[in-house]
Amino acid sequence: MGRRLPDSDVYRFTLALLFSIAAISCFMSYYSFSVSFKGSSDTLSLGSAESSDGNEEENGCCRGIEHLELWGDAVKWGSDFKLNSSKDCCEACKEMCKGDDAPCLCDSWVFCGDKEACGSRFGECWLKKQKDTLDPDRRDSGHMVMWTSGLIFGKGEGIVKLNTVYGAFHVKLLPDCAPHSVAYILELLSLNHCAGCQFYRAESRGNSWDPQGNHIEDASFGPPYALIQGIVEAQGTAFKDIPLEACPTIRRGSIAWVGSGPEFFISLANHNEWRKPYTVFGFVLPEDMEIVEKISQLPTIPDVWSNVKVSVLERPVSLRFIRSKKSP
């Protein structure tokens, strides 16, 4: 049988209880965002309220894919150009792709960074030019390949179109931030179909974010959560989980994976409250966001995912990535 607490203990217990209730309430308001994405075992969450280390959108991403050798015309020979890291090699390629008007002189790089496997070729940085940046020339891949390779998309390059029955909008891909993700999207371009690819969830900005995506003071952070969500896994094709390629903060127009894919979302707002790093692999060009807004306004059915109210489209919207030559 339990012992009755003395008055002083009751007072301390009451304070502790009230504090716990307040803490749980705060936690639940943040937790609601983490469970508002459905369909991935690696559920998105806000994580810590502390800012993540650096914003790669500002600092500049420079990543490649290990055990991949891209071919192409050499614009700088690695036998005469050695650097300390794959990032340095990537940056060297970017330096040749800074002109606003002129085309990139370098759009791909190949680096040998495994001392044991590379031997005397360790540090070689080959800067190359592809005939088709949306269909790069892959010479070899696999664990026996000692090279790391990456793509660089300059101004007007690396833009694909996402087709829907409500219109097509243009997407700028970010291979230097999310190389594995972009490689998958480029694979989709080669398919004659994308059966099963669709948007199935749509939530407007509501009264929480303005048309520029900025959060309105004192407004809630949802629901609605200002996003449209879908899946890009073509039926009949095998999907391999995409590794986390932590990238920029979620901004209006950002396209990011839910977990490791193939589910993804497009943000209608600047979600500074979402602290966990996401794999952002592209963004919708600003002038095309009206189409994304149109989809977010389509009729929906209320549903509950992990105790969070969401809005599911009455009729899913089919989608497909195709080529585009549009300049930003």
TrEMBL record:
Keywords: Membrane, Transmembrane, Transmembrane helix. The keyword Transcription does not apply. The chain crosses the membrane at residues 12-33. InterPro entries: Cyclophilin-like_dom_sf (IPR029000), Cyclophilin-type_PPIase_dom (IPR002130). Residues 160-310 form the PPIase cyclophilin-type domain. Signal peptide: none annotated. Pfam families: Pro_isomerase. The keyword Repeat does not apply. This is PPIase cyclophilin-type domain-containing protein.
